[in-house]
Amino acid sequence: MLNKQQAMIAIHPYLNFAGNTEEAFRFYQSVFGGKFSTVSRFRDTAEASRLPHEEQDKLMHIALPVGRNTVLMATDALESMGHHLNAGNNFSLQIEAESTEEADALYRALCEGGKPTLPMMTMFWGTYFGMLTDKFGIQWMINYNFNQSISI
């Protein structure tokens, strides 16, 4: 359990789509307004060579700030990369931690009785990141941005 002096920056919804993330986020942008703060395509990653040509322009990550403290984020969860979407696994909650220590503590606490899916590690996009499913079946992403001045 975290002590009262530890505080997360925010919790953000992270959505998974079956190849139509861009269409969905253009719709959400028309509803909520604003500008995308991040748009990353699979073609720009090391994974590009594993994908069929027609999937390389799909979105690896997109972020749309919604309101003062919430960012709606998503990815194209591609079957060619082993993803199979069902109701219940089409979203995660992402926690923005304030330190790597807090990220590790949250990861350990939420993993208790659950299932780790990706251990906490420094990722190629420059954050400290991990994923898990808790004992209630909720998917979590824990993230610490080394450069806190950049909002994701």
UniProtKB/TrEMBL annotation:
Residues 11-142 form the PhnB-like domain. CDD domains: PhnB_like (cd06588). Pfam families: 3-dmu-9_3-mt. SUPFAM superfamilies: Glyoxalase/Bleomycin resistance protein/Dihydroxybiphenyl dioxygenase. This is PhnB-like domain-containing protein. It comes from Flavihumibacter petaseus NBRC 106054.
